[in-house]
Design brief:
Layout (H helix, E strand, L loop, with lengths): L1 H16 L14 H6 L5 H5 L15 E6 L5 E7 L7 E6 L7 H14 L3 E5 L10 H10 L2 H15 L4 E7 L1 H13 L3 E7 L7 H4 L6 E6 L7 H14 L3 E6 L15 H18 L2
Parallel strand pairs: 3-4, 3-5, 5-6, 6-7, 7-8
Antiparallel strand pairs: 1-2, 2-4
C-alpha cells in the first residue's frame, strides 16, 4: 500500500500538469497563450462571456481566401485588398468566438477608416465559429501553438517580404496579436492588444520589433491590473515601447454583443488605435 501511495504522489501531478505541456522529468511553465487558453476551464471566465447576439454580416469587398501553410494544411483568411497597391497590412485576430461576422465587420471598418491599407483577418480556429460560450471555450482550448504559428507564418508569407504588418486583436486575439508581431519580426509595424494575455518571457520580448498599444480593463479579473503592471515592467526591461490605456470597465468591454459593452470606452480606444496605426503605416 505504501508503494502504491508513493506512485500516486509522483504520477498524479504529472497528469495534472499534462495540459500545460509539463513532464515529470522537465517541469515547464505554460506559455502566455497556453495560460490564457487554460482560462477556458475557469467557469467564472466562461460565464463572463454571454453568447453573442446573432448577427449576419455581408461585405461587398471582403472575400474568403484559402492559402497554403508549411504544415500541409490550408489556412483560411478573410481579406480586404487596398484600392491601390500598398505594402501596408493589418492582421486582425479574432476573439474566442472565432472569425465571425463581428470580426469581419470590424475588419472592414478599419479598412475604410485607415484608407489605403490591406486588412487580413486570420482564422486561428480553421473555420470553426462558436455561437455560444461552451463551444468558444472548447475551440479556444483546442488551438495548438504549432498550428497557430503555421497559420500566422502562412499569412506572413502570403503578403510577402516587403509588407509592413500591424496587428490587432481582442481577448484571445489580444494575446495572439502580440505573438503575431513577434513572428513577423522585422516586418512588424505595430501591435494593438485588447485585454489579451501579455508575453512574460523577457527573452522573447527583446526580439519584438514593433511598438505596442495595450488596451486593458481595470475591472478585468484575469488580465488584471497586476498582470498589466508586470507586462509594463517586462517591456521596460526588454527595452521596448509600450503604451498602456486602461479603462474603468470589464473584460471584453469592446465587444458589442457583450452586456458589459462600454460604448464610450470602446469609442475612445478605437480613436487611439486609429492614431497608433496611422502613425506606423505611412
Amino acid at each position: 500500500m505504501k508503494k502504491l501511495f508513493l506512485l500516486a504522489i509522483v504520477f498524479i501531478p504529472c497528469l495534472l500538469y499534462g495540459q500545460t505541456k509539463m513532464s515529470c522529468c522537465q517541469v515547464q511553465s505554460p506559455t502566455s497563450t497556453e495560460e490564457f487558453a487554460m482560462l477556458s476551464t475557469d467557469k467564472q471566465f466562461v460565464n463572463s462571456h454571454p453568447d453573442p447576439i446573432p448577427f449576419d454580416y455581408k461585405s461587398e469587398i471582403g472575400r474568403d481566401v484559402m492559402i497554403p501553410s508549411a504544415d500541409g494544411k490550408e489556412v483560411h483568411i478573410y481579406e480586404f485588398k487596398a484600392a491601390k497597391p500598398t505594402n501596408n497590412y493589418i492582421f486582425v485576430i479574432h476573439e474566442w468566438y472565432g472569425l465571425n461576422s463581428y470580426i469581419k465587420q470590424e475588419s472592414e471598418k478599419l479598412y475604410h477608416d485607415l484608407g489605403n491599407v490591406n486588412v487580413i483577418a486570420l482564422d486561428l480556429y480553421d473555420k470553426q465559429v462558436a455561437t455560444n460560450r461552451d463551444d468558444a471555450s472548447k475551440y479556444m482550448q483546442s488551438v495548438t501553438e504549432e498550428r497557430a504559428h503555421a497559420i500566422i507564418n502562412a499569412a506572413i508569407k502570403y503578403v510577402g517580404t516587403k509588407a509592413k504588418i500591424a496587428t490587432i486583436g481582442w481577448c484571445f486575439g489580444g494575446g495572439w496579436s502580440l505573438q503575431t508581431s513577434l513572428l513577423a519580426a522585422s516586418q512588424a509595424a505595430g501591435c494593438i492588444m485588447y485585454y489579451g494575455m501579455p508575453e512574460k518571457d523577457e527573452a522573447k520580448l527583446k526580439t519584438l520589433k514593433a511598438d505596442v498599444l495595450g488596451i486593458f480593463a481595470e475591472k478585468d479579473k484575469w488580465i488584471s491590473p497586476e498582470v498589466v503592471k508586470e507586462f509594463e515592467e517586462n517591456m521596460k526591461k526588454a527595452g521596448k515601447k509600450l503604451t498602456v490605456k486602461s479603462y474603468n470597465a470589464d473584460h471584453a468591454f469592446a465587444n458589442p454583443s457583450n452586456p458589459q459593452y462600454d460604448k464610450e470606452s470602446t469609442a475612445d480606444a478605437y480613436t487611439l488605435s486609429l492614431a497608433f496605426l496611422k502613425a506606423r503605416l505611412k
